[in-house]
Amino acid sequence: MARQTQVTIDKNRCKGCELCVHACPKHVLAMSKEINDKGYFYSEVVNPDDCIGCCFCAITCPDVAIEVAVGDNKDRGE
Amino acid sequence: MKTIFKRPESLTLTPMHYCPGCTHGIIHRLVAEVLDELDLRERTVGIASVGCSVLSYNYFNCDMQEASHGRAPAVATGIKRARPDLIVFTYQGDGDLASIGMAEIVHAANRGEKFTVVFVNNTVYGMTGGQMAPTTMPGQVTTTTPRGRDVDDIGYPVRMCEILASLRTPGFIERVAANTPQHIIRAKRAIKKAFQYQVEGRCFSFVECLSTCPTNWGLSPYKATQWLEENMVPYYPLKNFKTPEESEEGGKNAD
Amino acid sequence: MAKVLMKGNEAIGEAGIRAGGLCYFCYPITPQSEVAEYLSRRMPDVGGSFLQAESEVAVSNMLYGAAGAGVRAWTTSSSPGISLMMEGLSYIAAAELPAVLINIVRCGPGLGGILPSQCDYFQAVKGGGHGDYRCMVLAPSSVQEAVDLIPLAFDRADRYRNPVIVIGDGMIGQMMEPVEFKEHKFPPLPPKDWATTGCKGRKRNVVNSLYLDPIEEEKLNMKLVAKYEQMKREEVRYEEYNTDKPYQALLVAYGTTARICKTAIQQLVLEGITVALLRPITLFPFPEKKIQELARQAEWLMSVEMSTGQMVEDVRLAVGHDRPVYFFGRTGGVVPTPEEIRDAVKKHLTGKGV
């Protein structure tokens, strides 16, 4: 069972640059059809189960809009 | 659940004003993560320069000073000489550092001032609307090179790491990039080493970070990261140019 | 403490150290390079930091950084170098940082010469760089007075959190005169809790002059203006000479030129002509009220300067239409002689005004 992961995107900090979507090796993220307070289509988690907790999305986000948490069973050092 | 990635404490909560997809924000975060990991936040003074990062004093959660255009290395020199106990870094763009501030950076490096320079190279003057910078690529169109940079007319782009590496004194010089997760991880390693050398009071440290400018390159954020990889990286090789260890052991850089 | 015969430049260096100016940045320029040379020897002894920068542009920004980090930082230079510092000076004033700049003026404009002059009056008194700001400007007329004014400059820079300029013509730097370093006591200063010293145990500090919000920028401008109004109320300094008896004319002169005027006045006394002198010591704040008061007893005034006439404008501003204000000056590094000043005065007295 892939370990438990959780990606949290602060939708109102997102500027819709899509870099996280491109960076994710598992296509977990996609751009929403809704716009946030600033009028951007924000990024959101669409396939949470495929997430491997690699943090590429958070690493490549220019606006520190993404937080990543992983389950306790196996830590993956960043 | 254990959080393994979140905003570093050395970044304020203020949303950044950078254009969508501009990798300035990433580089800010890397510096902030390093300040957290080395526990430096409370004894660091950052110097914001003039350019897109002119407002970075709102983002770095430590004492900050705003320098006039090109003079951050001189301001940093003043602080470090006045209070050598403080950790000091400048955050500068290519117009600020390689154009108007060239004398200041070359002489600060040559004096071996014990502070760290984070130099963001995105080949244009972003804040003022995309004019040519010293680092603009050959043939690259900007608002002041509408027919593309003509190297026969105004010469080739300036390579700061190579210039500073030709100086005997500066100890740590490395060029990294912020356009892909892999590059970003390596960039952080270099920035961390740079600050560690400063903590040890060892040498002047300089990290040049290639960065994107989607708005003024006229590309989507992702295409901009590709343009950087295909055009900038070949001309601005990502590597270490100097480390104090090599210089001290009479390595390749000692002359 | 006994008097010592010292060159002005070296006395200035020593005075800066004794005033606590232990962070000094410089760039060589005649006629004041000896200050830097002297301090390069002395600073290590007193645990201060001395640095020769790559340019005066860099110097002014090193000053900004050091002052912003809460230490007494200063520099000395001469006219062309001071011009390069103007941008930095504007930033220092805007960010409300204390700094002391000493200008040993040489003739200009442009590359000019290396001989004494007072042609930087406007630059010093009217701010010099961009934006609404002023510097307190102190004008010694001797090496001793320079040594006495420097501690005051450091105190007032800290007290007002504003740059202070000490301006002397080339002679003040190059002359050798006996000088004594006296003890100078000042009331205690508030702590520099605004400085960037590392935010441990407090909110972080930001030294900055960028104000994109016009309302905030205007507040800053008003805050600076209030400082200058306070200076005008509390910091005016001048010397009166020969004003204790009736006089026909009033000379206004500062620095070395004022000393030459005193000799001219003594010569005129022998010819039965009584002329008085008002010597501003603070060029900003300018002693307007005093000049207005003294002007009432004179038929006319004359500003005597080593320039083509700069302070004369401020004298006219002070006096208005009450009295004619003439001007006599030599420039290009030429130092006026007492006789020339005497003759210029006599010409006006006999109505054949210049």
Portion in strands of chain A: 25-35%
Give the number of helices of chain A.
Answer: 2
Q: What is the number of independent domains of chain C?
A: 2
Structural class of chain C: alpha/beta
CATH class of chain A: Alpha Beta
**Strand order across the largest sheet of chain A:** 1-4
| CATH topology type of chain A | Alpha-Beta Plaits
Q: In a few lines, what is going on in this structure?
A:
Chain C: It is an enzyme of class 1 (oxidoreductase). The complex is a heterotrimer of chains A (78), B (255) and C (354). With 78 residues, chain A is α+β, with helices and mostly antiparallel strands.
Give the arrangement of secondary structure elements:
The complex is a heterotrimer of chains A (78), B (255) and C (354).
Chain A: E1 5-9, H1 19-23, E2 29-35, E3 41-45, H2 56-60, E4 66-70
Antiparallel strand pairs in A: 1-4, 2-3
Chain B: E1 2-5, H1 24-37, E2 44-48, E3 63-66, H2 72-82, E4 87-93, H3 94-100, H4 102-111, E5 116-121, E6 124-125, E7 131-132, H5 151-154, H6 160-165, E8 172-177, H7 181-199, E9 205-210, H8 214-217, H9 221-235, E10 240-242, H10 244-248
Parallel strand pairs in B: 2-3, 2-4, 4-5, 5-9, 8-9
Antiparallel strand pairs in B: 6-7, 8-10
Helix pairs in contact in B: 1-7, 3-4
Chain C: E1 4-7, H1 8-18, E2 23-26, H2 33-45, E3 49-52, H3 56-68, E4 73-77, H4 79-84, H5 86-94, E5 99-105, H6 121-125, E6 136-138, H7 143-160, E7 163-169, H8 170-174, E8 176-179, E9 206-207, H9 214-234, E10 238-241, E11 249-252, H10 255-270, E12 275-280, E13 282-284, H11 288-295, E14 300-305, H12 311-319, E15 325-329, H13 338-349
Helix pairs in contact in C: 1-2, 1-7, 3-5, 10-13, 11-12
Note the main attributes of this structure:
heterotrimer; B: alpha/beta; Rossmann fold; 7-stranded mixed sheet; 10 helices; 10 strands; globular; C: 354 residues; alpha/beta; 2 domains
